[in-house]
Amino acid sequence: MAEKSTLIVVADTTPVNYLVQLEAVDLLPALFGRVLVPRAVIDELTHKNSRPVLRAWSVAPPAWLEVVDHIDSDPLLADLLGAGERDAISLASQMHADLVLIDEAAGRRVAMARNLAVAGTVAVLLRGSLRHSIDFAASLKRLRARGFRMTDKLEADALALYVSQRDQQDRQG
């Protein structure tokens, strides 16, 4: 697999949330290069009801994370999405991002309707596992244990894709 990419990626709250909880958030700069989040994502992660690990991470985010304070948020999205999703999609559009990381179905639909490439937490874990950084099956189990909503079909499809891509890598390398 190729070395670190130089993609511009904008992340919504949910992928960052779960990657922090799994201690896998450093996959983001390793896989993509430039990672941006709107201020609304940090606000959601530091909310008083957030887990302490998320609040601690968010008040002092790593240097590789670019927090964007001023976004021309699309007012048409205000009634459809939460602040983090709305601002992540708006920022991804404004930055001509290569990818927006978002898990919620409504946000994914809106992002795809705006011709944005979309991936989620499971895709990040899959890419990371193919670089031999993490155990994919164990990460999916830990993800579910932390409350991540994933259908059995998504999990089975992701595991099958992982095995297929890993086998392809083994044949090539």
Could you characterize what this model shows?
There is one protein chain. This protein is an alpha/beta fold and about 170 residues long. The chain contains nine helices and five strands, in the order βααβααβαβαβααα. The chain has helices spanning about 15-20, 25-30, 40-45, 50-60, 85-95, 105-115, 120-130, 135-145, 150-170, and strands at about 5-10, 35-40, 65-70, 100, 120. It has a five-stranded parallel β-sheet. The longest helix is centred in the C-terminal third of the chain and has 21 residues, at about 150-170.
In total, the number of strands is: 5
Strand content: 5-15%
Give me the number of helical elements: 9
Rg over CA atoms: 16 Å
How far from one another are the termini? 9 Å
Order of strands in the sheet with most strands: 3-2-1-4-5
Mean model confidence by pLDDT = 92
Largest sheet geometry: 5 strands, parallel
The oligomeric state of the chains shown is single chain
Shape field: globular
- Helix-strand sequence: EHHEHHEHEHEHHH
Class derived from helix and strand content: alpha/beta
Uncertain residue segments: none
Helix content range of the residues, please? 40-55%
What brief labels describe this structure?
single chain, 173 residues, alpha/beta, five-stranded parallel beta sheet, 5 strands, globular
Strand-helix topology:
Elements (H helix, E strand, L loop, with lengths): L6 E5 L1 H9 L5 H6 E6 H7 L6 H8 L5 E4 L14 H13 L3 E3 L3 H9 L4 E2 L1 H10 L5 H10 L6 H21 L1
Parallel strand pairs: 1-2, 1-4, 2-3, 4-5
Helix pairs in contact: 3-5, 7-9
